Amino acid sequence: MDEKNYLKDISEIKNLMNQSSRFISLSGLSGIFAGAYALLGAAIAYIYIFPAQQQYVTLHSRDFKMLLLLLALVAILSIVTAVILTTRTAKKNNEKIWDGTSRRLLINFLVPLLTGGAYILIKLNSQHYGLTAALMLIFYGLALVNASKYTIGNVKYLGYAQIILGLICAAMPGYGLWFWALGFGVLHIIYGSLMYFQENKT
Amino acid sequence: MGIIDNINKLFDHRIRLGIMSILVVNEDVNFNRLKELLGVTDGNLASHLKALEQADYIKIEKSFINRKPNTVYSCTKLGRDEFKLHIEALEKIINK
To answer: For every residue of B13-80, which 3-state class applies, written as one string?
Structure first.
């Protein structure tokens, strides 16, 4: 066998390793949509729900329930959009949407995320809502970093950015909504657009 | 000599090399997934898997999922070490 064949061997090894362990069909467009939903949600919260003059939101008030509803709506819309767009990209890439690789990606994403979610809910129940935005950003960032091992692209860096933003947010109480909008809205849109252009280039 | 020593004869085949590449980065992989990733026929894949198993490079576990047989393959410590040596040898040849 000559040198050229060995080179071909190496590139084939690399391809098979990636293909068998990484899910490649996450769509950048779904990031852009998720960001847009988040910004819209934050705007609605800011205009209609957030109490004026630094009043505190109490746990059982109508406003608080509206806020949770809004949050759930943003999350559900983002997930549905991501599933639809990812299925479409997977079809194009001839990749199965539900196989060992995507299952592992999802599990590694969900473990930190659900842990964080449960922790936030426990804290909310004992009236600690000051750090909610920071915790959401931090745990979401950790989930992204953890999941990034099983997909391609730079999801890792989006994760790091969310974590850093979450920590800054924790250090600056009172600006939770702004940091939340920055992280879940603006960062998603920036990252999604970068991914989207990359996808269309190749 | 030297470099060529570590080139493993058993890996000097596209499909066997492919099987090992997949198994070293995954905990375990079943037959159909291997077939799908490598794009080979049942018989062809089975014979290469057998060769690797006989060398103790991979191990086979048979079980049933909903009464359907499910065979999963994973690589052994020996297989992983040999694969690493082989890759290093390939690297040396290319960088020579």
So the answer is: CHHHHHHHHHHHHCCCEEHHHHHHHHCCCHHHHHHHHHHHHHCCCEEEEEEEECCEEEEEEEECHHHH
Which residue from B81, B20, B1, B37 is spatially nearest to A9, judged by alpha carbons? B20
Half-sphere exposure (Cβ direction) of A137: Cα atoms closer than 13 Å:
30
Q: Could you give the 3-state DSSP secondary structure of residue A23?
A: strand
Cβ within 8 Å, pair B29-A3: no
Cα A47-A53-A55 angle, rounded to 5 deg = 95
Ordered mean pLDDT values, 10 residues apiece, chain B (96 residues): 66 89 89 89 93 94 86 93 89 81
pTM more than 0.90:
no
Average pLDDT, chain B: 87
User: Do the chains contact at A100 and B17, CB–CB below 8 Å?
Assistant: no
The answer to whether A88 touches A100, Cβ cutoff 8 Å, is no
Assign A179 a pLDDT band (cuts: 50, 70, 90). Answer: very high
Nearest by CB to residue B22, choosing from A9, A10, A16, is A16
Q: Please state, as a whole number, how many other Cβ atoms lie within 10 Å of the Cβ of residue A33.
A: 21
Q: Where do we find the tokens 């950790």?
A: A142
Do A13 and B93 lie within an 8 Å CB cutoff? no
Q: Is A151 helix (H, G, I), strand (E, B) or coil?
A: strand
